[in-house]
Amino acid sequence: MLTIIAAASENNALGKDNDLVWHLPDDFKRFKLLTSGHYIIMGRKTFESFPKPLPNRTHIIITRQKNYTVPENCIVVSDLNKAISICPENEENFIIGGGQIYKQSIEIADKIELTRVHTSIDADTFFPEFDTNNWKLTEKQHHPKDEKHIYDFTYLTYIRK
């Protein structure tokens, strides 16, 4: 199963200057819970935005750069199809960004785990528009803003129809 996981604002903003545009600790915890022990597919810029590889996950980095070197437990490929072909077939595998990789995978993904952040924000990277007629919303959980979270947000789980 191929699952896209992302946090996007109401105007689909994901990030700016290769960084997130908010700090949502509970969303980070959910991301870790869902992706730990799995293969995670990302673009090079997303990978480079991490201080170090995320623990307990196999990283697949998509880049056109030849001889791109990565730490142990990371795999480099040249395109999305190669990335998917490396993943275990009978497991949930995650697309974690960035914007171009989401755009390339939105038509082939089986599931979307979207954290909808209830704000509109200035960004340079966006989550792609997707036709909700092709998806069934199976879970919805609202999280109000609080002392640790500057924005309200809602976890949305979509399964392809």
From TrEMBL:
Keywords annotated in UniProt: NADP, One-carbon metabolism, Oxidoreductase
The DHFR domain, residue ranges: 1-160
Pfam families, per database record: DHFR_1
Catalytic activity: (6S)-5,6,7,8-tetrahydrofolate + NADP(+) = 7,8-dihydrofolate + NADPH + H(+)
Keyword Oxidoreductase among record annotations: yes
Listed pathway(s): Cofactor biosynthesis; tetrahydrofolate biosynthesis; 5,6,7,8-tetrahydrofolate from 7,8-dihydrofolate: step 1/1
E.C. code: 1.5.1.3
Coiled-coil stretches: none
UniProt KW NADP keyword: yes
Function: Key enzyme in folate metabolism. Catalyzes an essential reaction for de novo glycine and purine synthesis, and for DNA precursor synthesis.
Record-given protein name: Dihydrofolate reductase
